[in-house]
Design goal:
The complex is a heterodimer of chains A (798) and B (218).
Chain A lengths: L1 H24 L6 E2 L13 E2 L17 H24 L3 H6 L2 H20 L8 H18 L3 H6 L1 H28 L10 H12 L3 H8 L6 H31 L6 H34 L8 H18 L4 H19 L2 H30 L9 H27 L8 H9 L5 H8 L9 H29 L12 H21 L4 H20 L2 H5 L3 H24 L8 H11 L2 H13 L8 H22 L2 H15 L21 H24 L20 H9 L7 H9 L6 H4 L2 H9 L25 H8 L3
Antiparallel strand pairs in A: 1-2
Chain B lengths: L2 H18 L3 H15 L5 E2 H5 L10 H9 L14 E2 L1 H8 L11 H19 L6 E2 L1 H13 L6 H20 L11 E2 H7 L5 H4 L17
The chains are: A mainly alpha (798), B mainly alpha (218).
């Protein structure tokens, strides 16, 4: 199978090259001229014009219209090639765990580049700056912004900014000046270059690259603070890079003589304008997106499209205004995530998440493959030992020095100081990538005589960092015993405790009269709740956006899902397949009087748009399916069932609420049939309502009057569900007997849960699904490179 | 304040600094704050704390205020509450939120952790019986979520139940049919919060500068 995909891969590339050659060969007359393709793959080949205008002998039944489709065909073909490369790379899992995927993709790029070069005698396809900056980079950054853990990001914002701004400036200055010094010292031989050009080169090679960082750190799960430092830095340093690049580019054009204090001050001011302006553009677009999603209730089907379009527009707008485009799209993603997740329908949210991931991953793949291909171009091969080796040395060494210096300063002000080992990993993780290459390819050859040297050096630096540092990152992290990310998601109890801590700290700060970090956060939180949420969120979304409620909601859905899945597996779900069948079932077991009530229940609970319940469930199934799968991984399945059972048995028997009737040893059957029915219909109704409320986020209304005038409470799904699972507990048969005696209503607290089991046996609806032992659910294969759940739940954090 | 009085308070402060671990400037600031809250009296009562307007939006208001008057937090080994507290007690409660010193041993760190978590535990365990029962937990969660949107009381109760379930399953595992699950004991509590970084979570930065005057009003 591996051979087949490899052959297919080679085949597609051969096909690409040969098609073009063949087409040239069979051209029918016409003019020669270069036909630039609109921003597609940067082809330098001169094209023959379409030759359809000349004489045609007769009607041609089939014609070969290559030029008609050339541009889109090549694009699609290259995307396919990139995808297939990724497939090839991922064939061998043990290989990808040692060598990061990005390195392997570059390797494949080399091979492909070699093939193309061999076929065309020149590199027809390279990574042009236009394609890269306009079509490949935006989606990666939008993905980064959208899935950014906001709380973590903003708590560490100070440190991230220090590293991004001061760190990058330090790197740029030291590398540039260091190289210049060495050039003056004669280490590089005779090249046509100057101080300003060195500084420019320094500034473009200094920046840590977000694409590379994502690609490498994805496989090495370091602790979140460390990750957010490096990652945040890689995103925010674009502001600095853009400014430095433009400033030095302008300086080089002006020539050395024109530079005076005014220009330098203008440069510094432009930094602030570019950085803050870019962020502002992003925030404005985030507001637009949020407002838009507020009104898209009637066009839910294309809701997701708006996110991408507006995100892309924010990128282009910032680019148009010569502000930092990356900052713009990052802040767009960061600021809008909360509101659009609240406003949009669940299915749209899922769509956005997955499409975002597809685009981002696809772009990354294409970027790395083309980085590989672009290297096989002897036109840019200029070797200068001194330049290249010194560059490598300087970026490595000065990164370490810079990080340690800045961390030492920062640690004086941080609550939790950054450890030494974390600093080492942070320095080592300063990877350079495609952004540097894109910038260097943008240089003007006339102004920069040594452009090819710089391009080669940049490529070598990129390969060094991505491949070597990428490969050694994991062993290094393991060897240094870096604190890794928590693998399991926080439990509900822990989240509640988190919330408790937050409020507690704010209160203590208030009492002690300090203005602290928590005070600020609290103030922002209050402001946001009062004004922003009112403005940007749909009214219905505002109610159910508390993150603890969302966690709880997820848990409920998950339980419901497992319940349905299990029932389907066993082949029978007594009551939820479709209304009519359910009706019949109940009629069989109960007297006819009951069936009068059932249709009411079913009718009442037809679901939001008068869709029958079964299809709601089916609707629920696919949309939550994706989320749930990840949860399956993290939740402890068998313990859940265990726990649910536990609660049933023990917890609600608080001492004061102990009732004689629920003795384990003393079985009692409930004689009161009315009570049984009422319990059944109450639990049924509340179960259905909790499905409904799970969908709509509304507190279930109480409709059915019971004979006993009890206050109906919504059935808690975990507990309700658990009763079914509890059958599979080691207690086995004993359990069944127990449940026989366990019916009747009683105290509210105790009575709520027991009736679930009661009805199940008492009412005679013996659901065989839940009688037998249940195997633990198989764990889903973890979807690689898609870590959605932590992000999902984190995004609920304020 | 006369010179003699300030000399006396200096000596007191030094004594307090040694016992609670605050620095002299921090104690000075907290003393000023104490005076401000207690309206220059020697003792602080619940009403004084309740009158802080900033606390109005805080769902944990009542619990925090109670924590100040809870004897267990005042290093007294009995249960119950006091009516008024002096400056020393005020400091003792505040000291739970001090950061750990830079270089302390593992067991000292562990001890500090236990102390801090004990504070939180006491806050939840209102009847001082050493366990957080379901009722207490429910009440705590309800209060916590009371200010957060429109989460109903029943939903809060359901959430508390689900959380309790998790705790029960993680700490007790399989239980015999006849056993009770009484509630969360302190050891269980520690276990749940094992992964928490208490250093950051329970840490208020006590400044050496006087910020009381920087904030207008309270």
């Amino acid at each position: 199978m591996a051979c087949r995909t490899c052959l297919w891969l080679l085949g597609t590339t051969f096909f690409t090259c040969t098609v073009r050659l063949v087409v040239e060969g069979t051209e029918v007359g016409a003019t020669q001229g270069s036909q630039p393709e609109p921003g597609v793959v940067g082809s330098n080949h001169s094209q023959a014009g379409g030759g359809h205008g000349s004489s045609i002998s007769g009607i041609q039944i089939v014609t070969f219209k290559w030029h008609h489709v050339e541009a889109p065909y090549l694009i699609a073909l290259w995307i396919l090639v990139a995808g297939v490369s990724k497939m090839v790379v991922e064939l061998n899992h043990s290989l990808t765990s040692v060598i990061p995927e990005s390195a392997l993709l570059i390797l494949i790029g080399w091979i492909l580049g070699g093939i193309i070069y061999g076929a065309d005698k020149m590199q027809t396809f390279t990574l042009t700056p236009t394609v890269f900056f306009f079509y490949l980079l935006p989606q990666v950054i939008l993905d980064a912004g959208y899935f950014m853990p906001n709380k973590l990001f903003f708590s560490n914002m100070g440190a991230i900014l220090v590293y991004a701004v001061i760190g990058t400036c330090w790197n740029a200055a030291t590398v540039g000046l260091g190289l210049w010094g060495c050039w003056l010292g004669g280490a590089m031989g005779d090249i046509d270059i100057g101080l300003l050009q060195f500084l420019l080169f320094g500034s473009l090679i200094a920046a840590v690259d977000p694409v590379a960082v994502i690609a490498v750190f994805e496989e090495v799960h370091v602790n979140e603070v460390l990750f957010i430092m490096v990652f945040g830095e890689s995103l925010l340093n674009d502001g600095v890079t853009v400014v430095l690049f433009n400033v030095f580019d302008a300086f080089v054009s002006l020539g050395g003589a024109e530079i005076d204090a005014v220009e330098i001050i203008k440069g510094i001011i432009s930094f602030f304008v570019v950085a803050f302006g870019g962020s502002l553009v992003g925030i404005i677009f985030a507001l637009l997106i949020s407002l838009l999603t507020r009104c898209t209730k009637n066009i839910q089907i294309i809701e997701p499209g708006f996110i991408f379009i507006l995100g892309y527009l924010s990128y282009l707008t910032a680019e148009m205004l010569s502000l930092s485009a990356i900052l713009s799209i990052v802040f767009c993603g960061i600021c809008c995530q909360k509101y659009i997740n609240a406003n949009m329908d669940e299915r749209s949210v899922t769509t956005v998440r997955y499409v975002m991931k597809v685009f981002a991953n696809g772009s990354e793949t294409i970027i790395f493959v083309f980085l590989g291909i672009s290297a096989i171009d002897p036109a840019v091969w200029v070797w200068n030992t001194g330049f290249i080796l010194l560059t490598l040395l300087f970026i490595f060494v000065f990164r370490f020095i810079g990080v340690f210096l800045l961390t030492w300063i920062l640690n004086k002000y941080r609550l939790v100081p950054l450890e030494f080992i974390d600093q080492v990993v942070m320095s080592y993780g300063g990877l350079r990538g495609a952004v540097a290459y894109g910038l260097v390819a943008m240089l003007d050859e006339n102004k920069f005589k040594e452009k090819n040297l710089m391009v080669s050096t940049t490529l070598i630096v990129v390969y060094f960092t991505v491949m070597l540092q990428g490969i050694t990152m994991k062993p290094l992290v393991t060897w240094l015993k870096v604190k890794r990310a928590a693998v399991t998601e926080l439990t509900l109890a822990e989240k509640i405790q988190n919330r408790t801590f937050d409020h507690m700290l704010v209160a203590i700060e208030d009492i002690s009269g300090q203005i602290g970090h928590n005070y600020m956060r609290d103030k922002w939180h209050n402001f946001e709740e009062r004004w922003l949420c009112w403005f940007l969120m749909k009214p219905s979304a505002r109610k159910s956006r508390d993150y603890i409620f969302n966690i709880f909601h997820q848990l409920n859905l998950k339980d419901a899902m497992s319940y349905v899945k299990e029932g389907e597996r066993r082949g029978s779900l007594a009551f939820v397949r479709n209304e009519t069948k359910a009706d019949v079932d109940f009629n069989k077991k109960f007297r006819a009087s009951f069936s009068e009530i059932m249709p009411d229940i079913m009718a009442d609970n037809m679901g939001p748009d008068h869709v029958p319940l079964s299809s709601i469930l089916q609707d629920i199934v696919p949309s939550v399916c994706l989320v749930m799968h990840e949860q399956d991984l993290t939740m402890r399945e068998s313990e859940d069932f265990n726990a649910h059972h536990l609660l049933q048995q023990h917890l609600y028997r608080g001492r004061k609420q102990h009732r004689h009737r629920y003795s384990r040893s003393h079985l009692e059957t409930n004689r009161d049939e009315n009570e049984v029915q009422e319990i059944f219909q109450r639990t049924m109704r509340s179960r259905l309502e909790s499905f409904k409320s799970a969908k709509m986020g509304v507190a279930p209304a109480k409709k059915i009057q019971t004979k006993h005038q009890k206050k109906d409470k919504p059935q808690k799904m975990p507990n309700g569900n658990s009763s079914d699972k509890s059958k599979n507990h080691p207690y086995g048969d004993k359990d069944l007997e127990f449940s026989e005696g366990d019916c009747g209503s009683g105290d509210e607290a105790a009575g709520d849960l027991f009736p679930m089991r009661a009805y199940r046996v008492e009412a005679g609806i013996v659901n065989p699904a839940f009688m037998a032992e249940m195997d633990p659910m198989d764990n889903m294969q973890q979807i690689p490179h898609v870590a959605l759940l932590p992000q999902t739940l984190n995004s609920f954090d304020t | 304040m006369g010179a003699s009085q300030s000399a006396r308070t200096e000596h007191e402060f030094q004594d307090l600094a040694d016992r609670t671990g605050f620095s002299l400037e921090q104690i000075g600031n907290l003393n000023k704050r104490f005076r401000q809250l207690s309206k220059n009296e020697e003792t602080l009562s619940r009403q004084d704390l309740a009158s802080i307007s900033a606390l109005d939006n805080n769902p944990l208001r009542a619990q925090i205020i109670n924590a100040f008057f809870d004897k267990r937090n005042l290093r007294q080994n009995e249960a119950g509450t006091v009516q008024v507290i002096g400056f020393e007690e005020f400091l003792m409660v505040m000291s739970h939120f001090r950061p750990a010193a830079m270089h302390i041993t593992e067991e000292e760190r562990e001890k500090l952790r236990r102390e801090k978590l004990r504070f939180v535990f006491n806050m939840h365990d209102t009847d001082s019986d050493g366990t957080i029962t379901l009722e207490e937990y429910r009440r705590a969660v309800e209060e916590l979520l009371s200010k957060a949107g429109t989460i109903g009381q029943e939903t809060a109760k359901a959430i508390a139940d689900a959380a309790m379930l998790e705790v029960a399953s993680t700490t007790r595992g399989k239980m015999e049919p006849d056993e009770f699950y009484e509630g969360i004991t302190f050891e269980n509590f520690l276990q749940i919060l094992k992964t928490f970084d208490i250093e950051t979570r329970m840490h208020v930065r006590f400044l050496n500068m006087d910020t009381a005057t920087m904030r207008c009003g309270k």
